[in-house]
Task: structure prediction
Amino acid sequence: MNFRQKEISTLLAQIKDPKLMAEFLSDLLTPEEMTNIATRWQLIKMLATDKPQRLISRQLKVAIATVTRGARELKNKNGGFNKILKMYGAKIK
Result:
């Protein structure tokens, strides 16, 4: 991770107000980027519940390769997706 990536990660971690976070992300990202990130998170949550990849692809209207990439990331038990799911899984709807 380079300096710019570390800086934005640190900044995002410090924003505790959900409304401020939404406003910041809205300013930072294009609507398409925000939609893509939100969709990616939905597919990760679906994969974590063992839904079939093809079903996820159809329901979210994304390429199977996108779902497969998410599944590959979830295989890393020490990766960020798994850490967040463990920390917040019960609270995520």
Observations:
- The domain at 3-91 is CATH 1.10.1270.10 (Trp Operon Repressor; Chain A).
- The chain has one domain: 3-91.
- The two ends are 30 Å apart (CA to CA).
